[in-house]
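Standup notes, structure subgroup. Blocker cleared on the nicotinamide-adenine-dinucleotide input:
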Amino acid sequence: MRLRNKTAVITGSGRGIGKATALIFAKEGANIVISDVNRNDVERTVAEVSETGAEAAGIKADVTNKNQVIELMDLAVSKYGKIDILINNAGITMDAALLKMKDEQFDTVIDINLRGVYNCGQAAARVMERHKSGVILNASSFSGIYGNYGQTNYVATKSAVIGMTKVWAKELGPKGIRVNAVAPGFIISPMTDKVPDKVLEMMKEKCPLKMLGKPEDIAYAYLYLASDEARFVNGAVLEVTGGLT
Ligand SMILES: NC(=O)c1ccc[n+]([C@@H]2O[C@H](COP(=O)([O-])OP(=O)(O)OC[C@H]3O[C@@H](n4cnc5c(N)ncnc54)[C@H](O)[C@@H]3O)[C@@H](O)[C@H]2O)c1
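Run returned:
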């Protein structure tokens, strides 16, 4: 098992990529701390992870709320004594072309996808610093590197996450904490439910592998980066897009 005795905190893990990551990490021996804004999804994921025989705890926590973020990290420490891995996975889209975008759409996405990553990264790093080890993995996106129509707000956050990843790699590396980002391509998840079939078909055609990704495809990238196999990988952005880009 590649994550035996490690404790992983995964934000937005009530469904989608976060949940798939929780289940795969559990099979690799990690203790999992599930968190999401949706309490029912938290409870369901905790139950599913526990069924694998792994240790799991859960809490409703909004990444934009500093107190709730601290409660989340405190839960991990009180239950398992440490945080080895943080996956900054929580994120949303509120797409609109620039000329139609409302300030509220811009602010909400910035708050969750950018400030949320800052809040959780800072709170977890304060715990990891005490143990002089840890791994922080941030969810970026192919669109954060290459841009995407209708995503001024989302792309701004996903590019910024890459910037923060590189800063943290430099600041936290000397403290034994590695920081990397994953940039997924098009992944079928509840986030992409609202994407019209026509666009999904187009994305599939554009991908050299002629397929869309599954949440597990991203979870396995996180698994590699979280494991000791990636001990020399720091400040990297791993694109998992099927070659789309
Ligand atoms: N699906 C894709 O094609 C794709 C592509 C590139 C990047 N990503 C990124 O991967 C991550 C996961 O995406 P997904 O496809 O699983 O999406 P998803 O919508 O299925 O899951 C996101 C989860 O985050 C939670 N969440 C939303 N706001 C939150 C908040 N304020 N605090 C805590 N949790 C919150 C949601 O409740 C949900 O459970 C996101 O950061 C997303 O931007 C996804």
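Discussed briefly. Residues 103-131 form the longest helix (29 residues).
Next: hand off to the docking folks.
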